[in-house]
Amino acid sequence: MLNQTKPDPVRSPLLDKAQAQGIRHGYFTRIGGVSSGIYHGLNIGTGSNDDQALVAENRARVAAWMGVPARHLLTAWQIHSPDVVVAREPFAGERPKADAIVTDRPGVAIGASTADCGPVLFADPQARIIGAAHAGWKGAFTGVLENTVLAMESLGAHHQNIVAVLGPSIGPQNYEVGPEFLARFVEADAESISYFAPSANAGHAMFDLNRYTVDRLAKAGVTADGLGRCTYAEEDLFYSYRRATHRKEPDYGRQISAIVLERE
């Protein structure tokens, strides 16, 4: 599959319903790219050590699938923050440091770059306002999901009309955390203990980032769902920071999840 020349993203049935309102989306995999070696496939990571000419070609292929010029495929300089930016045109100069982007402008594809963290795509089909968030544990914990909803509402969306879907991210069977991690969550909310399961290693736990993310989205008042795909386990399809770390590989690729308002 990695030898295919065109991207073949995973889709969300919930977001597919928004296609009728001219909203296109895709959770892109490694399929359809030109990178090789540890980056084999559709690596869009500008922060990786991959040949940046190959990264640019991969991003151009994603943009083509989304139906926009390459410079209209926007990702932020992600810093594991709760910060959201509004984009109405291609970024001028350095990309903004943030972890979510929202827009109400057709022809501007917005995306989240991930390699275990959760990519969440948002759409209010009635208001035709969209969002894309990079939600690792820190971003989700500190409010990037709720802030994305608020930013969309500032443009005219209504939370009860927003659909938000978590794409491929690390699953609970592969996300082991230490005692200080668990303590941080339980101190903030005692009920968070339900997202942790015992680990084979004493003092550690397995964290369900997927369910934590979807639950926080639901509490924000949107229609929430998750694809239930694990980046660590599905090596043929997804890059994984943790998998690369466990193998002591020098670097890792990144996949992108993107959404766009098609021009009417």
How many discrete structural domains? 1
Net shape: globular
The CATH level-2 architecture is identified as: 4-Layer Sandwich
Number of helical elements: 7
CATH superfamily: CNF1/YfiH-like putative cysteine hydrolases
Order of helices and strands: HEHEEEEEEHHEEHEEHEHE
Distance between the ends: 33 Å
Percent of residues in β-strands: 15-25%
Text of the CATH class = Alpha Beta
The share of residues in helices is: 10-25%
Radius of gyration: 17 Å
Summarize the structure.
The chain has 264 residues and is an alpha+beta fold. It has helices at residues 13-16, 52-66, 137-142, 144-154, 179-188, 209-219, 241-246, and strands at 23-27, 73-74, 84-86, 100-103, 109-114, 118-124, 129-135, 163-166, 176-177, 196-198, 205-207, 223-226, 255-261.
Defining traits:
CNF1/YfiH-like putative cysteine hydrolases, globular, 22% strand, 7 helices, alpha+beta, 264 residues, six-stranded mixed sheet
Can you lay out the helices and strands and say which pair or pack?
Elements: H1 13-16, E1 23-27, H2 52-66, E2 73-74, E3 84-86, E4 100-103, E5 109-114, E6 118-124, E7 129-135, H3 137-142, H4 144-154, E8 163-166, E9 176-177, H5 179-188, E10 196-198, E11 205-207, H6 209-219, E12 223-226, H7 241-246, E13 255-261
Would you kindly provide a written description of the structure presented here, covering whatever features stand out?
This protein is an alpha+beta fold. It has helices at about 15, 50-65, 135-140, 145-155, 180-190, 210-220, 240-245; strands at about 25, 75, 85, 100-105, 110-115, 120-125, 130-135, 165, 175, 195-200, 205, 225, 255-260. The chain has a single domain (about 15-170, about 210-260), classed as CNF1/YfiH-like putative cysteine hydrolases (4-Layer Sandwich), CATH 3.60.140. The strands form three sheets. The protein has a six-stranded mixed β-sheet. Strands 1-13-5-2 form a four-stranded mixed β-sheet.
